[in-house]
Amino acid sequence: MAKMIFTLDEVKEILLSNNQIPHYIVDFRTEGHTVFFKMDIPLIPPIPATIKYVSYQDNIITLEIVRDSVNGKLADKVVSRVISKFQNKMPTYTKLDYPNIYVDVKSLLTNNGIMGVKVEDMAVEGNSFTVTTCNA
């Protein structure tokens, strides 16, 4: 078993270094335990949004796009429509069901050639992202 603790800024750098952030996500930054980003899509002004960690269960990490961060119902509808158009461009291990984002961690690891590791738990506390693993 191993326990790895990262700051959210370190997680951001790992994701960026491994090209795991879609090209239409811009101004991707962290502050404390919150991730902020803007979606820059042609013909639509950049939409600011915030993501928060919800849970990790049965190999699925659940994140939520915080609705208050997208400035009301109009932006809510726009983001929902935009996300539905990009669902087919997301990796197979990611599912978008606005406002939730589900990531199948086992599939993510397999798709990236990481074998022999099982993620037992994930947690976000403050600015720390903790991953606990065990043998597969």
Task: Summarize this structure briefly.
24% of the residues lie in helices and 49% in strands. The protein contains 3 helices and 9 strands, in the order βαββββαββαββ. The strands form 2 sheets. It has a 6-stranded antiparallel beta sheet. It has a 3-stranded antiparallel beta sheet with strand order 1-9-8.
Q: In terms of topology, how is this protein built?
A:
Blueprint (H helix, E strand, L loop, with lengths): L1 E6 H10 L7 E7 L2 E8 L2 E14 L2 E6 L6 H15 L7 E4 L2 E5 H7 L5 E9 L2 E8 L1
Antiparallel strand pairs: 1-9, 2-3, 3-4, 4-5, 5-7, 6-7, 8-9
- The strand order across the widest sheet is 2-3-4-5-7-6
Euclidean distance between termini CA atoms: 10 Å
Number of strands: 9
Figure out the total of helices: 3
Structural class by secondary-structure content: alpha+beta
Strand content: over 45%
Please state the CA-atom Rg, rounded to the nearest Å: 15 Å
Instruction: Please provide the ordered H/E string of secondary-structure elements.
Output: EHEEEEHEEHEE
Provide the residue-averaged pLDDT. Answer: 81
Can you walk through the features of this model?
The chain is α+β, with helices and mostly antiparallel strands. The chain is 24% helix and 49% strand. The chain has helices at 8-17, 72-86, 105-111; strands at residues 2-7, 25-31, 34-41, 44-57, 60-65, 94-97, 100-104, 117-125, 128-135. It has a 6-stranded antiparallel beta sheet with strand order 2-3-4-5-7-6. A 3-stranded antiparallel beta sheet has the order 1-9-8. It is globular and about 45 Å long. The relative contact order is 0.20. The mean pLDDT is 81.
